[in-house]
Amino acid sequence: MNVTETLSQGLKREFQVVLNAADLKTRLDDSLQDLQGKAKINGFRPGKVPVAHLRRLYGRSVMSDVLQNAVNEANQKIVADNNLKLAFEPQIRFPENKEEIEAAMEAKGDLAFTVALEVLPKIELADLSDVSLVKPVAEVPDADVDAALLRMAAGNRSYATKGEKAKAEKGDRLIISFVGTLDGEKFDGGTGEGIPLDLGAGQFIPGFEEQLEGAKTGEKRTVKVTFPENYAAENLAGKPAEFEVTVTDVQAPEAVKIDDELAKAFGMESLDKLKEAVSEQIGRDFAAQSRRKLKKGLLDALDGKYSFELPPTLVEQEFSSVWNQVEADMKAAKKTFADEDTTEDAARADYRKIAERRVRLGLVLAEIGEQAKVQISDDEVTQALIERARQFPGQEKQVWEFYRKNPQALAEIRAPIFEEKVVDHLLGQVKVEDQTVSREALYADEDAEETTEAKPKKAAAKKTKKAEAKADEKADDASA
Questions:
Q1: Whole-model pTM?
Q2: Which of 253, 268, 373, 454 is deepest in the core (most CB within 10 A)?
Q3: pLDDT over 70 (residue 450)
Q4: Burial label, 117 (beta-carbon count in 10 A; 0-12, 13-18, 19+)
């Protein structure tokens, strides 16, 4: 096997590999000899089938395996001899000349093929001793606890029948039965009985609830609506429908009560214990937001410290992922780039920068983690997998089996764990100062950041902060 480098341009490499006919014949003969000891063919004793007969029966199949093994061996040799880290699996280009391929299959001619590689850049770790970060920390306001308790009480309160002549108002609960039709024909999922509907809650199709305001117990109404264009059921999306609705009861909400009984309804022994639990939960939410902002600051600092050539294919794949989401969201919202005061070319340029940031940070974090010898234990992966399975009640076993049988999917479980460990490692190397802030300050920019990476930015000057934050969260994908 002769290997010659033919291209070294940036992160791209190409090598020509030549497998000479003599080597192919030796490999083929060795494989056939091995097959001879295993083959069971009628008319021959085990282990006594002539090699020539095996060649006639299985020669091409065995040679295909020989060539595949030779290609794999060549790839491993190239990587090892040149100390390369690959960004992608090698791309193999065989000769277009069929006669050359046929000669190689018969071990009567040399086979030359090209191995094209895209390698990862060498990254020199930057000095972070001059990096100073601010970690926003917020105390849990009593008002937030009170507001949470009010929401819990409102969602848990009882309703009482208003009476036959009472008209339904916003905030009331209706008990309804309905039959839906499209062009006069019933459709699956369009029928319901004894369904509670809270007026003003937006539970049903837009326009449905409003047409039931003022209804009385026992009243029948025809409700005409149009399913949203992005409705989950494709056979209904964008189509007009009619519902024959019968109101069987009109109920008014009873007074909200925040007391020990409310606490018991949520499994707590007293209102004080419920307040304590609510405060702790809000505190965890605050801590998570604080961590997100601190991490964003760290990754911003890293992004400013590193500049190197990026593997083109990695960037292109990341950009395609982001751009597909952009187009899907715009289609669902029925918007154009002009609606966002931009152009498709400008939006593409902005989102390509985001893709480049993702890839760059992913590679940096991978290198830092490798040099710091960051490890992920099987227990950590198992725990994360259990948490993922819990997100699908009733399907836990299927989810578990899916990830266990799909290494690439399991890598998506490992990647965030790895990233958080690397972030923890880095936070130990930089200066971090706690800064007490209000709840509003902790969540500042959240509204502005709603322009996610899946939506075009209105102008280049208005950076999509949340898109970059999402890029940070997924930076490890490039190194998974």
A1: 0.74
A2: 454
A3: no
A4: buried
